[in-house]
Amino acid sequence: MRVVHIKNPQQREACLARLCAEAYGQEAGLRPLATFAGTLGVLVKQEAARVLALVDDHSRPVALALLVLDELGSSMTVMLLAELDQDPQQAGVARPAERLVAELALKAPLRVDARDAEQEARFREAGITRWLDGKAGVRIGLGPKHPATSLEDLPRALTFDEAAVIQSFKRDRQQFDDYKARFIRGLETFPATL
Length: 194
Prior knowledge:
Elements: E1 2-5, H1 9-24, H2 31-44, E2 49-55, E3 61-69, E4 76-83, H3 96-107, E5 110-114, H4 117-125, E6 130-133, E7 139-142, H5 162-171, H6 173-188
Parallel strand pairs: 4-5
Antiparallel strand pairs: 1-2, 2-3, 3-4, 5-7, 6-7
């Protein structure tokens, strides 16, 4: 079991496509594609995003995460997290998404946002024990290495405007087709091992 930072551009694109597809599901409309395009077109270009995987003992990815730097560059927020289907014939990894968060929290100043009690419980099991009340009922969890002690200390995570990305797709069909082709190619070329 180990965490892999995916730096190879083709592998990163494939893993990001799979992560977006897994995190949003089949009925998400343009959201997975908009997140894929915004992450690549804005956050990766600014070197503000990292795609990481938890791999099993055979180097097969079992969970993926998208981490994004805050505006000060002092911490990272888990923006997307997904478990991947494991081969039932193999001895699977129990709760791989939580394992990935637990490993990342030990190494990096990590922040997670929980939208409900179930998410908070999962992150607590992963070792996120400090919690703050955010806006709109969101609970903000901080890993042991995160420097913030209150909401006032918490820098904003870098992001992009998802609605603007979708609008740009409507205005620029070529851009939409390009990102759609890259997304599909990423899903088709998702690496069996990392």
